[in-house]
Amino acid sequence: MYDIIIIGGGPAGLTAALYALRAEKSVLVLEKLGIGGQIALSSRVENFPGVKSISGFEFAENLATQVTDLGGQIEYEDVIGIRDGKTKTVITDSAEYEAKAVIIATGVKNRTLGAAGESELIGSGISFCAVCDGAFYRGKTVAVIGGGNTAVEDAEYLSNIAQKVYIIHRRDKFRAEERLVKKLEKCQNVEFLLSATVEKFCGDGKISGLDLVSTKDDSKWHIDVDGAFVAVGQIPQNDILKGLINLSDEGYVSSGEDCLTNIEGIFVAGDCRKKSIRQLTTAVGDGSVAALAACSFVDAG
Questions:
Q1: Mean pLDDT across the chain, nearest whole number?
Q2: pLDDT digits (tens, 9 = 90+) for 186-214
Q3: Could you confirm whether 218 is annotated as catalytic?
Q4: Is 295 one of the annotated active-site residues of the chain?
Q5: Cβ–Cβ under 8 Å, residues 20 and 4
Q6: What is the pLDDT of residue 41?
Q7: Is 203 left (phi over 0), alpha (psi -120 to 50) or beta?
Q8: Residue 139, class by beta-carbon neighbours within 10 Å (0-12 exposed, 13-18 middle, 19+ buried)?
Q9: C-alpha to C-alpha distance for 66 and 21, rounded to whole angstroms
Q10: Domain 2-110+234-300 maps to which CATH number in 3.40.640.10, 3.90.950.20, 3.30.1330.60, 3.50.50.60?
Q11: 2-110+234-300 and 118-230 share one fold
Q12: Which CATH class is domain 118-230?
């Protein structure tokens, strides 16, 4: 029996573990893939307070070491369900664990295009966060792929940093709000490439360009870029919560800044929670809030 089980080993989950351990609670972290979540794929992190520059992998590794040094247990298992009761039972693909409280920190998965070269260049020129990584491309040429609000806002944001910005969308009209599109149209260094898709991300170890294909006449062409930002949506990793925790229409856990859920003793932290800003700093903030709430719950007996 653990005091707290944390599902997810990203920044939110590991921060929650750190705070819970410092409160002298027994903690188990369950992670199905690898420590760090999406931040581990970032080549550099330079927007975390007090840290000038660090690789995402090193940041995650340092956080995990803090957790284990305090006696926290990390197991690499896939959680397939949670059973509510007087205590909480977390069911994985290989075992069952009991705890007095559970923190959900399952994160999100970025939608990818599935184009050739994409998986090889993620973190080496391909990013999913303009706010996180835009500063690395000051004075350079970048592309944003997508047609929703996020893509248009990313392109507008990058237009103030990069020398040249392409925005690529498979349709001839954006899904984004018209006011955002009109604002982007005023940016002199932004070029619209509509009715086009990315056929291939080019580069050997680092992105160098994109092979594009027209959705109208199948014509093909190439553009040189120093970076590409894929903005075609995110998928919350909350399938195991369906039927137990209240989820939004998009699949995010319905919770406010208090990180409480509709189930007593189950808390939520990080990107899997319904929120407007998903950044490293907000993830670790959620982790501390959820951990302290879970500790209070455990102490109350």
A1: 95
A2: 999 999 999 999 999 999 999 999 999 99
A3: no
A4: no
A5: yes
A6: 73
A7: left
A8: exposed
A9: 10
A10: 3.50.50.60
A11: yes
A12: alpha beta
Q: Which of 3, 132, 202, 286 is catalytic?
A: 132
* 133 in catalytic set: yes
Catalytic one among 129, 202, 259, 295? Answer: 129
pLDDT in tens, 136-146: 999 999 999 99
Name the residue among 145, 138, 127, 130 with its Cα closest to residue 43: 127
Sketch the domain layout of the chain as residue ranges. Answer: 2-110+234-300, 118-230
C-alpha–C-alpha distance, residues 82 and 98, integer Å: 10
> Rounded CA gap, 225 and 178, in Å?
27
The model carries a pTM of 0.78
pLDDT at 42: 76
Instruction: Give which of 300, 301, 298, 299 is closest to 5, Cα–Cα.
Output: 298
Report the range out of 126-135, 189-198, 230-239 with the highest average pLDDT.
Answer: 189-198
* pLDDT band (50, 70, 90) for residue 228: very high
Annotated catalytic residue within 78, 84, 133, 217: 133
Phi, then psi, of 138 in degrees rounded to 5: -60, 125
pLDDT at 105 over 90: yes
